[in-house]
Amino acid sequence: MAEPHRVGPLLLHQGSARDQGTRAQLAAALPGGELSEPDGLGVFEATVPAGDREDALQAVWNAIAASGTDDHIVFLEHPELPEHWRPRSGAPGG
Known about the structure:
By secondary structure, the protein is an alpha+beta fold. 29% of the residues lie in helices and 19% in strands. The strands form 2 sheets. It has a 3-stranded antiparallel beta sheet with strand order 1-4-3, covered by helices on one side. It has a two-stranded antiparallel ribbon with strand order 2-5. The N and C termini lie far apart (47 Å).
């Protein structure tokens, strides 16, 4: 059964107009979720209905990707994505 879970993302542009636009884009891509106002550092909470914390992290991760805001938001805690840090392209000249 889905229940509300909180995820803590961080906006990277120190409260700029870009951050407000980024939050609006994320909110549009996160149906059923709610976003809190960011604190002075840019940390906010995304509350989403999910089966567990991992599902909540994945839902917010997917919404960030779908909204194209991945250059403007980072996670304080990553979802369990195998080798998420690895580059997707091959080696130069390879």
